[in-house]
Amino acid sequence: MKRIIILLCIAVMACGTTFAKDQAIAYIDMAYILKNLPQYEQANEQLSMLSKRWQKEIDAAQQEARVMATNYQTEQIFLSETMRTQREQEIVKKEQEVLELKRKYFGQEGELYKKREALIKPIQDEIYTAIQDLANEKRIDIVKDRSADPSLIYMSSKLDISDQVLHKLGAK
């Protein structure tokens, strides 16, 4: 009985390695592909400009809050209790506005995220479609991204289809 189980295990392992050998694998370098797509560079430039503009707006609001706080510190002893409370509330309100601006522009669902999604997602979809088409044409079963796989120690250059993906996208 033990022999039959052992023979079955060996047969299953032999079949498993046969199937694994029949799989075609190719690699891409997504960082290389993106770097060579002009539309991706344009989208990144646009995102960078928006980010800088929004950061300037936030910095100006922060500076305004700092000035308000500094002025309050200097004038505090000359103010009535009501005026001090009012000024403190104004400072807190301004600081909350700064936090709200940061969340609005750079938060998880902020404007930068939405803009990045609108600009980058179509490019990514186009790349993935090109990869899928190329994989179907060349009968490739698995396509891995070598720029995202830190465990990849060696890869034969003949398995890298990054330039072919760029060609399919009309770049270079």
Main sheet strand line-up: 1-2
Alpha-carbon distance between the termini?
63 Å
Number of strands: 2
Helix/strand-derived class? mainly alpha
Roughly how much helix do the residues carry, as a percent range?
over 70%
Largest sheet: 2 strands, parallel
Number of domains: 1
Low-pLDDT regions = none
Order of SSEs: HEHHHHEH
The overall average pLDDT, rounded, is 86
- Count of individual helical segments: 6
Form type: elongated
Rg, nearest Å: 29 Å
Measured by DSSP, the beta-strand proportion falls in under 5%
Describe the structure in brief.
The chain is mostly helical and 172 residues long.
Describe this structure in words.
The protein has 172 residues and is mainly α. 73% of the residues lie in helices and 5% in strands. The chain has one domain. The relative contact order is 0.17. The mean pLDDT is 86.
